[in-house]
Give the backbone structure.
Amino acid sequence: MNSIASNLLNTDTPLDELLDATRKIVDTDLKPLTVKIDLEGYYPESVMRKLGSEGVYRQHLSDMRSSGIPDMGAAIQAMGVVSHECMSTGFAIWCQDTCGWYIQNAANSTVRDNWLGKVSSGNVLGGTGMSNTMKAFAGIEDLRLKGKRVDGGYIVNGNLPWVSNLGKDHVFGTLFELEGRLGGSVMALVDCNAEGFELRLSAHFVALEGTRTFACIFKDVFIPDEMIIDDDGAAFLRRSRTGIVLLQFGMGIGNIQSCIDICRSVEPLLGHVNGYLDDRPDELQEELDDAVEAALILAEEPYETDDDYFREVLQLRLTAGELALKASQSAMLHTGAQGYLQTAPAQRKLRESYFVAIVTPAIKHLRKELDTLAQAA
């Protein structure tokens, strides 16, 4: 571990203190911005950096904890606190956490020493350009980035349609196919300031617009050896995949709990008629509590590579996506016309829930992966 990373280590923050600090930032800094983030696409950079200063992005990183033991569960729960208020910001946290996860799992100690402290503290913000990679390894699409070996690194060309939590001075992890090596791929950390690299705003979304999501264009971008995470992309993905998917539970947990809370908030006024609806809040709460308990148990082994274990992770991730859809529809039906207003939380949660269901790995992707694993068993 380098001296910079060592200097960032503190006594590991107890979970209750971490979550209390996160709630305070949500209440004082994020809540006043939520509607602006949703309707105007505002990116809450100051909130992101403040969360980093409280240690939110280092809980799951063994090198950034004095105990040396990763606490993936703490990272998931902190993300859930933020996603309960604003899943756009929760998704940005997932991007930041996952970028740190890539660096933590780097085979190349240089990239880990140079960048882990910066990303885990929020001093450098980062994203994850692995949607295409995960789809490609599942046989859904081809790798979009191609690289060739040159002196001191690689030259990369291609494009990624949507990568989030990006901007000037940001970094992100991605994987490219290696020319001349059949089936070969390389995992790298990309500097958004690299020559030949361009961020291009190519779309506007119905939700999660405040996430700085861009198309990433690579035109003869040189990625030096000191930015290479692993020369064997397939091996990297296998040892990192469990953590990547586990971290997404933070978004789902926050979204689902907020929908349940919305249903309960209108009970004094509408409970006499809402009782005729399906998917009542107590029923949803029981389903969520079971899913959270199972997720936190799985999160105790984020480095597990066994296919049976990963199948459990995928199945539970599928449950989270399906439950988010059910809970958000319930929130809309329970609130009625009040939830249909432009600034109403219920309709925002509905739009956010679809993101839980379609972000890679999407529901259809998860079902395909689970079918593939079942056939291989």
Notes: Confidence is low (pLDDT under 50) at residues 1-9.
